[in-house]
DNA sequence: AGCCAAACCATAACATGTTATATAACAAGG
DNA sequence: CCTTGTTATATAACATGTTATGGTTTGGCT
């Protein structure tokens, strides 16, 4: 069956990027599921942002992640319910809610940073290794590569080396 | 404000591809809004698939678009309500529902194919023109390019030439 | 013939993105 | 100081992807 998104080239580049991104995330999800806290992979990017940049207001978080503010508000609420972050109104400006990693959140990040993120990073780097040339060709190579060996298999093989 | 997804490199490639894809689609949406039928850009890919490959069963459509079957089922229902496609149980096999462009659907595709899709294709090609090198660099260039001039502006400038 | 597994599609529940809009806190001018 | 505009966040409504599961229809095997 012809892959229409590939055939249409630039016209459907947006859909195609989204599709590849979703597959990468789904693959990464399987690797993250090993941790005891069940979180979606996109939540980890929020935690990573806090770990990297320190406490941030909701809007700043949105900006640093490149998503809209309502999306961050929702994710923060979810993570706060799980006890991984805290959102405390700022003293200077009561409109702002500063989002901070809790101790549990920091522990989770530390575990992920040590045990899981390097593997994902390595597996994706492996997937993209040796790519060159036009964007569409590189994307096709990624699609083919993922179809041939999903990320979790690349991690296992990498670990065996 | 630091762009965390960029900083994290391969680790967040999935999120980043999704983010770029969403922005491209949003930009393309503004160009499509000119047509009289208000459709989301992802629905157009479904119509494009039918135009390109002819009538398809729901499952085949899902496969050719690279999405899951429930997603296609929902989109088809929506497009059927708008009178752009028809989904008729096959005679040979009552399990299959063959999806076909209606006359109105074909007209819409023809208009899009003539007036809009070439512009989008051209604008995205323009955006990606001259890209080379590692994937992450090309993605950064796309992000910067979109920030500097969204697709609709590229179309206008292209048309003026 | 009759039964059982597989194939195809629909539906439900959820995740997570968006836009549009409401609310509350701040800031500045009359 | 009060109004008024702006800023920060929350909420609602929607779009569209996913997985899990259920219900028909087929088709093959005994």
- Superfamily (CATH H level) name of chain A: Winged helix-like DNA-binding domain superfamily/Winged helix DNA-binding domain
The succession of helices and strands of chain A, N to C, reads: HHHEHHEEHHH
Quaternary class: homodimer
Whole-number tally of structural domains of chain A: 1
Highlighted features:
three-stranded antiparallel beta sheet; homodimer; globular; 8 helices; 3 strands; WH_DNA-bd_sf (chains A, B); DNA-binding; mainly alpha; 68% helix; WH-like_DNA-bd_sf (chains A, B); Arc Repressor Mutant, subunit A; 161 residues
Written description of the protein model:
Chain A is mainly alpha-helical. The first copy, chain A, has a single domain (4-160), classed as Winged helix-like DNA-binding domain superfamily/Winged helix DNA-binding domain (Arc Repressor Mutant, subunit A), CATH 1.10.10.10. Helix content of chain A is 68%, strand content 7%. Chain A is built from 8 helices and 3 strands, in the order αααβααββααα. At the A-B interface, α1, α2, α3, α4 and α6 of A face α1, α2, α3, α4 and α6 of B. The structure holds a DNA duplex (30 and 30 nucleotides).
């Amino acid at each position: 069956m012809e892959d229409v998104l590939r055939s249409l080239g630039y016209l459907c580049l947006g859909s195609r990027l989204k599709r590849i991104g979703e597959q990468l995330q789904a693959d990464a999800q399987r690797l993250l599921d090993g941790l005891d806290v069940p979180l979606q992979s996109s939540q980890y990017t929020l935690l990573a942002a806090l770990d990297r940049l320190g406490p941030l207001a909701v809007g700043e978080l949105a900006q640093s992640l490149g998503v809209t503010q309502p999306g961050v508000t929702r994710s923060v609420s979810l993570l706060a319910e799980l006890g991984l972050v805290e959102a405390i109104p700022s003293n200077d400006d009561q409109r702002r809610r500063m989002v901070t990693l809790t101790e549990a959140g920091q522990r989770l990040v530390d575990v992920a940073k040590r045990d899981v993120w390097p593997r994902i990073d390595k597996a994706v780097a492996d997937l993209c290794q040796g790519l060159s040339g036009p964007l569409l060709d590189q994307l096709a190579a990624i699609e083919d590569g993922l179809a041939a060996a999903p990320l979790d298999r690349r991690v296992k093989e990498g670990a065996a080396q």
